[in-house]
């Protein structure tokens, strides 16, 4: 297998760090690894396979040497729009974790367990979906293939790390201050997040939904190649450090029992069934954080509609929802 020259843009962020760890953990055939970040991180070093790699500034000349095969971007939409084309121009495949290109008709939006065939349609850029979308479609795809799906109602319980490492630190600090009876002044969230829930992720749109909710709707349809899917999403930030949870109510085209759903999910890639209520076994963020797979539990008949299934899924949004999904796309691309 050929060795691959890899670059990571946004290497010092939470997702960038997990990209480095994931490349090493999965023994991706990296020949040379280059790390890019902002000016304030330039010169710092990060470890990869026992070696220290110096961080370079991400700019329009970062890819001029034309020796990078795959560039994993997790530096935010603005930097992706500014610099991804520089990488493509220099013959690198860009796998972008931001929202910059997700709904571009010329850019495949890929979850390898769901639509790996779309990788071949790329024109230099492949987009990583929103983290909540990834976790949801990994669970939906095997059910969709087996029974058909007409409608999904999704309610998310999203960890603070989804808003970045500084937001994660703020949640911890708010908790400390509350317990010490000190004053709290939110910075990264619209309201206090400690001991609270905030039904507001990203900006509100004219239709009353947030941008995060609309991402789940539009991205799922694109990934599943089904514009007829009816989807309603409510996204909520919760005081959990890592791993997103989702409550899914699914209307099927064909009737299926909870055992039918468990059997189909158990045979599917990237998802594990953890569902034994009598033993108090069900997925929880505390248990799932740091794990690669999406976990499904609380699988039961939705009593409110015909052919309905209700279920609970949890996935680490920094891994499967971001870094791992990007590396898996790279693996598919090079034929692993």
Notes on the structure:
It is globular, with a radius of gyration of 20 Å. The mean pLDDT is 96. Strands 3-4-2-1-5-6-7 form a 7-stranded mixed beta sheet, with helices on both faces. The chain has 8 helices and 13 strands. The protein has helices at residues 14-25, 77-89, 131-147, 165-179, 211-224, 258-266, 285-288, 319-334, and strands at 4-9, 30-37, 45-48, 51-57, 70-73, 93-96, 125-127, 149-158, 230-237, 244-252, 271-273, 294-301, 308-315. Helix content is 30%, strand content 24%. Helix 1 crosses helix 8, helix 3 packs parallel to helix 5 and helix 3 (131-147) crosses helix 8 (319-334). It has 336 residues and is an alpha/beta fold. The chain has 2 domains: 4-128 and 322-334, Rossmann fold, CATH 3.40.50.720; 133-317, Dihydrodipicolinate Reductase, domain 2 (2-Layer Sandwich).
Entry summary:
With 336 residues, the protein is of the alpha/beta class. It has eight helices and 13 strands. The strands form two sheets. A seven-stranded mixed sheet has the order 3-4-2-1-5-6-7, sandwiched between helices. It has a six-stranded mixed sheet with strand order 9-8-10-13-12-11.
Structure keywords:
336 residues, alpha/beta, Rossmann fold, Dihydrodipicolinate Reductase, domain 2, 2 domains, six-stranded mixed sheet, 13 strands, 30% helix
